[in-house]
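Crash report, auto-generated. Payload:
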Amino acid sequence: MNKVTGINLNGNAYQLEEPGYAKLTAYLAQAREQLAGNPDQTEIMADLEQAIADKFQRFLSAHKSVVTENDVETVIKEMGPVDGERQENGEEQAAFRGPKRLYRIPEGEWVAGIANGVATYFDVDVTLIRIIFVLLTILTTGGFIFGYILGWVFIPVARTQEERAAARGIPFNAEELISRAKAEYAKLDGKRAEWNKRWSEWKKEQRRESRKREEWLRHTQWYGPRHHRPSAFGELLGIIVFCFFAWYGYHHVPVIHDFLDAAWSLWHRVADQLAQYISGQ
Amino acid sequence: METNDRFASIRKGLLEFAVLNVISAHEAYAADILAALSSTEFQTQEGTLYPLLSKLRRDGLLEYEWRESENGPPRKYYRLTEKGHHELRGAERYWKRLIITLKSLGTNR
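Recovered output after restart:
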């Protein structure tokens, strides 16, 4: 059984199996990328979509209303790769980059995952971005925190695999997904092996120390590995930590005190202006 | 390398004249063109043809007209412009000259 997604191809509605949908999306994204800079890009894309729609028609009948993954593969093979003018610059074009967007990435975040997202966007180490963030905060005497909060509100979180691919600017398709999942699993495996090793060493040491401690160890073990906390809780924790720092800074750091006072009065002035504007209307 | 592979880039370069030839015979829409080419050395796919048609149109060699079809949405029917006819005749002359030149260079007939 496969989940089905409805799509609109140049004004034609079709139901596609989800893996097929992913492949078609990847194909069209690649076509659009190939045609980037072509003045007729929109028109050619519409023609291609129409051609795909015509081909899908062949696979549908009164008894079959869904285009399967296999059908999509066949159609994409028939269509062939889209020849852009860019391809003349050599075969390197095969290493196609997907659309790149800024997302907040919750994996390994400290506060809201913004540094993480920015680091992924520019493909640099997250520590570097964090250092820059801290420097910016100092240079702007706290003003950057305001920007950070704005980012928190306005930058979306990369939740789906597709969004994660877009955060990295790599193409999203089934093969890509599988290879990434494999790489992540291998990484996890490596970590697990290391962890197991450390764990057994530690256990040996404990055993040597005393039986009583081993009992205690078994007791803690009983609780099992800690699960990743849900992200809503993580965000709440982030806000609480931020509030604490803001409170602490307000009372003990003159710069933050001044900044918050200034922000507070700015807010009042804006609110007044707004109220005047609304009542004046 | 087979002869077939050696000529791959030449075929690619000649594809646009193959397409112009197909259209010069009679007005055609994309699927017609693909069908006409499918049994020849110039067999190609939508992914290649559509960008090529748009380029030829931008170069002013062909133009199209939307026409209703019996079943399904309207189709773009392509035909050669005056410039397209001219270009095609020029290409044919040039191609003949190339063959004569090639033959005159050797004795392997």
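Post-recovery validation: The CA atoms of residues 103 and 109 of chain B lie 7 Å apart.
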